[in-house]
Design brief:
With 273 residues, the protein is mainly α. It has one domain. The protein is built from twelve helices and no strands. The N and C termini lie far apart (46 Å). 38% of the residues are buried. Residues 1-5 have low confidence and may be disordered.
């Protein structure tokens, strides 16, 4: 008597919601975890905001470009904190040595990734909403006043952060906790190359094509056009979305390949240092 192979279970939002609740309960159980989400964004916003006020005392460009530093800091934190929120939720499973249990459960890898993406937005909201309100109170900079442009900026930045988070998680799965430091450091390579605080034209000619190959570059250029020239560059946002689509698909494929490699080599069960 032969038995037919069991079909792979369909995508289940119930399993995704269960994982999100797990991470949410873990987050809200510790005041220090919540405060940490707000601490660094607030420090950076205040530091760059006061620098912006100092520079604004000069005539010319800085008088016309008020808010560019604060806007850049807040958008950078969306990018960085989005990726870190994804990676930290993943690392919680590694630190708890629970990943093997998850892989033996009905939870599918795509559901696991979906839960991490949702949790990254939750962690980002917990950390960033109070900071944006502080920006209004201290400097009169209302990020929400950007309207539809903010939605376009956010979409592109969060897609980039998820792509990087997915790739980093795959590398940790395959190569173990020795690759953990990448979760904290990899995003900083984007800081000079995506021109967060200055236009692309500042870079050497040979480096500018590298900058334009990264989706966040279009977002920060679009932010400066909006704040300085009061022009929303939809073309930049569409180009960023196209670049993000390529990188996100590549990150997902890389994650699945690294996961399969981890299964073959047995590193899923070797999650220590």
């Amino acid at each position: 008597m032969t038995t037919e192979p069991t079909a792979s279970p369909p995508f289940s939002m119930r399993r995704v919601n269960a994982m999100v609740l797990r991470y949410w309960y873990l987050l809200r159980s510790s005041l220090f975890r919540i405060l940490e989400l707000m601490y660094w964004p607030a420090v950076q916003m205040l530091m760059w905001g006061f620098l912006q006020l100092y520079l604004a005392e000069n005539a010319g460009f800085f008088a016309r470009a008020g808010g560019t530093f604060i806007g850049a800091v807040l958008l950078w934190d969306i990018l960085f904190r989005g990726q870190l929120g994804f990676s930290i939720s993943f690392l919680e499973e590694m630190w708890a040595r629970n990943l093997g249990n998850l892989m033996m459960s009905p939870l599918r890898p795509i559901e696991f990734v979906a839960a991490l993406m949702i949790m990254s937005i939750i962690r980002l909201a917990v950390g960033m909403v109070p900071v944006t309100l502080l920006a209004i109170a201290f400097f009169g900079f209302n990020l929400y006043g950007l309207g539809f442009a903010l939605a376009a900026f956010f979409l592109n930045l969060i897609l980039t952060s998820w792509a990087v988070g997915i790739l980093v998680s795959g590398l940790i799965l395959r190569y173990g906790m020795g690759a953990e430091s990448m979760a904290w450091t990899i995003m900083f390579i984007f800081l000079p190359l995506t021109c967060v605080y200055y236009p692309v034209t500042v870079l050497p000619d040979w480096l500018q094509p590298v900058a334009w190959s990264l989706a966040p570059t279009y977002v920060f250029e679009g932010m400066r056009h909006l704040i300085i020239d009061h022009v929303f560059r939809a073309d930049l946002m569409l180009q960023a979305l196209a670049v993000n689509a390529v990188y996100f698909a590549a990150a997902v494929m890389a994650f699945m390949a690294l996961l399969n490699g981890a299964r073959r080599t047995g590193t899923l069960m070797q999650i220590g240092e």
